[in-house]
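Field reference: sequence -> structure
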Amino acid sequence: MSTPRVFVSYSHDNSQHKKWVLNLSKNLIKDGIDVLLDQWNLEAGQDIPHFMEESISISDYVLMICSKNYVSKANEGRGGVGYEKMILTSDYLKGIDEGIVLPIIRNNPSDTVPTFVSSKFYLNFNDDSDYEFNYDELVRTIHDSPRLIKPEIGEKPTLSNDNDLDIDLKKESGLKTVMELISEIYNGTSNLHVSFDTLHRNSPFHKIQLELILKDAYDLGLIDWSGKRINITEEGRIYIVNNKLI
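Structure field:
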């Protein structure tokens, strides 16, 4: 992969701010990012506007360090002299792809960015205690390596409609009723099984309905059913207890 390149645009507010920008740039270089910065790329006698235009044209991103002074100058379109001319005004930036601009708030209590990039997502470096988190976000953005990657879209699940839901609820209700009857009959007999005929006489279901419910219970492993005799399995005993049928 090619090394990403960024141009750092900032205002020379004071020596402390200038040093912070320098340290940020050094950290980016350590993390595999080529940084174009006036403090080491601009030579004495070099044309400043030309340096800015050329740097932007060959960069993947422009890091806009939005201090309070920077925002004011950008919004007003003011230039200035010396190093202050390094500030990119809104009129100039409107001529380039705004997608390459990464606003970074620093030394700016109002947390503002220039008006023409006010809709862009920015990173707030005002609080030094959040530096590591914001720096990680910045590096990930430049390297196009997001912290979270969207999962692949899976297959459409089988979705039940209201009718299917009604059927499922009725089946579950019938199953509980029959298992409760089986447990009652089993409790009142000395046999180790329950006869189908006895269950049918005591159930509210038609014989065909009862057979279908017993088939579901058998498929779920709740009973062993030979046709005439019904034995409650261990799974069936657990089902009866868990569903409070006794």
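Note: Strands lie at 5-9, 34-36, 61-66, 101-105, 123-124, 194-195, 223-225, 229-232.
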